[in-house]
Structures are given as C-alpha cells and as structure tokens.
Amino acid sequence: MSVTHGIFDPSPGLEYTFSDPSLIFRAASLDDEPSLLIINTVGDLTGLLKGLSDLPAWPPSLFIDLEGTNLSRNGTISILQIFVSSTRKTYLVDIYTLGDKAFSHSASDGSTLRFILESPSIPKVFFDVRNDSDALFAHYGINLAGIQDLQLMELATRTFSKRFVKGLGKCIEYDAPMTPSERAKWKACKDAGRNLFAPECGGSYEVFNARPLSDEIIQYCAQDVQFLPRLWHKYDQRMTGNWRLRVEAEVKRRIILSKSVSYNGNGRHKALAPGGWA
C-alpha cells in the first residue's frame, strides 16, 4: 500500500484554505491523493460516521492517533486523527471544540465514534496505544478494544536487540517506504510542527488548542497517521504466529495498565520492552 500526504476535500467538514500552498504535498506517481477533512460540527460527525461504515476489516482500514496538551489523564485531548486506508481519507476530529459530542453523536444507524473505538470486531491501528488509552478512558470513559499496536509489532519483528521500543519518528524514518521527495517533505513538515509545539524547540503544546488550527499543525497531525499503513504492512508481513499471540496479549495488557490508578504515562520506563521480550 502506498500512502501520500493529504489535501483538503471540502465535503463533509470545514472548508479550509492553506495559506502556504507548499504545505499541500503531492505524489506524482499517484492520482488518487488522500483528502483531509476537519470535523468540528455535529453535521461533520454525521458525515464522518457514514465514512466509517462498512469498511474492510482485513487488512485494517482504521489508523488512529491523538494530539493534545500533555496527552494523558492529567492533560487534554485536542485532536483525534483517523486515516481510512481503504478510502484514502484523513479525518481530524476536533475534540477540543466538540468535547463529548465527538464520541456520543450517533448516525442514523445508531453508530457512534465511541462504539467504533470500543468494538473488538472493528480493528484499529495505533502506535503505542498507552497514553491514548489513558486519555480517552480518563476524560471520556472510552474502553478501547480491537487494537493493534505498531510499536509492539515493530519490536516483535525486529532481528536485533529487543531491549527498548522505538518511537514513531524512528519507525517512519527507517521502516516506512518513501521516495526521496516524500522523505524530504515528511521531515520538513515534522520539523515545522515540532518548532510550534515542542517546548525544547521554543514551542507550546497549546498550539493544538488554538483555533483555527495553523497550516503547519494540520499537516503535522495528518501526515504521520497517513504513514501508519505502510508500517503495518511491513511489520505484518514479518510476523510469525507465536509473536502475533504475544503482541495481542501485550496490547490488552497495555490497555488495562493505562486505565489503572498507578499508570504513569511519562518516564524512561516507557521505553523498555515488555517483560520477557528482550
């Protein structure tokens, strides 16, 4: 599967014009570019839920990430990103604006985003689900199920030391198939976003709560989630039956741990491999 950077599709969702056209990334080898839709009204949610219905379960169609200020039970959720690989649409759900309505609003068939996130029969791919689960459960009571964790899949298929897990940036840099042009644009977008939100770069995570969202933050939120299918296909092809079972068990353990009173979402301990994996 080849996934490129998104462009804006004005329906459904907020109509948006990029002030800097260079931020709209294109792949010359692909005609069916993914579209980027911002979901910040109840009407937009109806369109989103329609777009998430009757999707193929294998390979997974839903690739999800979250952004926020100190994303955890002690922080906030600002944006929930969904890339639908089967339709090549990227949705940025404005949790900061919509609040609980983002998860409780139902379509005509009764489906909600909460139902999708909690359904064990609808596969959803995250990268390191721990803090995402912590934040979703603490703030909105969402019990994630049907989760595949790319961080664990990478570790399970690694042929060298399994002592530490990798971060998403390293996985995309080393494992996501990219053309030289894509790689340059990915790095430029990543750096532009980090300069705005990373305190060590002089930024602030509050940029995720500024409305309207800046062009740089929109593209930062969209691009990483669009690379997740490339990682999934690479790691899935390498997985053996025994490691699939171990990954599945560890994902469930991560979700249970993330909802516990003692869970700490920050610290060096998060870089350690699961017990017995090293």
UniProtKB/TrEMBL annotation:
Domain 3'-5' exonuclease as annotated: residue spans: 61-234
Pfam families, per database record: DNA_pol_A_exo1
Coiled coil: none
Record's keyword annotation contains Nuclease: yes
Heme in keyword set: no
Example GO molecular function: 3'-5' exonuclease activity
Family annotation (InterPro entries): 3'-5'_exonuclease_dom, RNaseH-like_sf, RNaseH_sf
Keywords: Exonuclease, Hydrolase, Nuclease
Protein name: Exonuclease
Lineage: Eukaryota, Fungi, Dikarya, Ascomycota, Pezizomycotina
